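Batch job 17 of 40 flagged for manual review because the log was empty.
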Amino acid sequence: MAPRTLSAAQVAALTAHTVHRVGPSLYVQIRSQGTRSWLFRYSRQGKNNWVGLGSARDVTLGKASEAAERMRVEVRDGVDPLSRKRAARADARTATANIPTFAQCAERTIETHRPGWKNEKHVAQWESTLRMYAAPVMGQLPVDQVGIDHILKVLKPIWSEKPETASRLRGRIEKVLGWAAAMGHRSGENPARWQGGDLSHLLPPLGKIQKIEHHKAVPYAEVPALVAELLKLGSTSARALIFTILTGVRTGTTIGAVWPEIDLDEKLWVIPAERMKVNREHRVPPADAVVELLNAVPRTGRYLFPGQRSGKGLSCGATIRMRQQRQSGSQCRSVRFSCSGVGSPLALYKALQNYSRPTSIGG
């Protein structure tokens, strides 16, 4: 009489910590911890061999029976299931060894995009945020194994505490994984993608938790008075801010300005494409006040507005702080001027119409 095949209910009723026959060449192993797994048994060259078919928690009896039947056919055809499984594992290890880690992909992504970035500060920000937040969680993980669980582990601790940093970090991780996919190192959905991705369902929108504080704008009617006060200060930072106001350029464009770009005789400032955000050469015809300002600036190096470090321009802060000592009884107050607050072209135009140039702009 042929051995019977057990039903799912009969398999569930088994309790002894041993290997139980379930059907033709199919067994279930019950361990002392209570875990169960399916096994396929076959003989080859007089030796019994066992091949695991997965956990009974994840694989149903029906699926395990189908897998066992397929292997029985393979054994009859001369295939050794165990040798094939070992070969598949070896191939997988070889494939994994050829997959770069997330940290390696981050380095290569940065190197790929470095020529298109305007300054080394941007590169440093990429490197520092990925090293500080992403590397401890998934830096050494093969990039094809990075999933949404890893992304959440990186972002959750800073999502509400440091929303701006978290937003930039998420975008950088997305770019690294996108680079890896383009190079064939991973496939499928980008787990760091926000728009249309799963991440947007697992984290609150930053707009709901981030308080946006815009730079305080200087009313255009007060710009002439501001320029007059800056002239009294006479510092390099003050002159740089005046230059920014009168030319309408970005702060970074001002502090990176060098004398070879300026032709005072022709009244022309040619800003090369690599220093412009739109990556196109920009020409600025300086007003008389700008020419006079520059004529009064000491030429102590390459930069119009040199910083404290030799051979360097001013620091790349978006806001220039200056202290004004204003006598009001016994009180003094500190004033903080935001360059972006005078950046509107229309406001500048109106302000300059009311601007009366002092007799000597050099102060």
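Reviewer: the log was empty due to a logging misconfiguration, but the result itself is present. The chain is about 45% helix and 10% strand. Unflagging and moving on to job 18.
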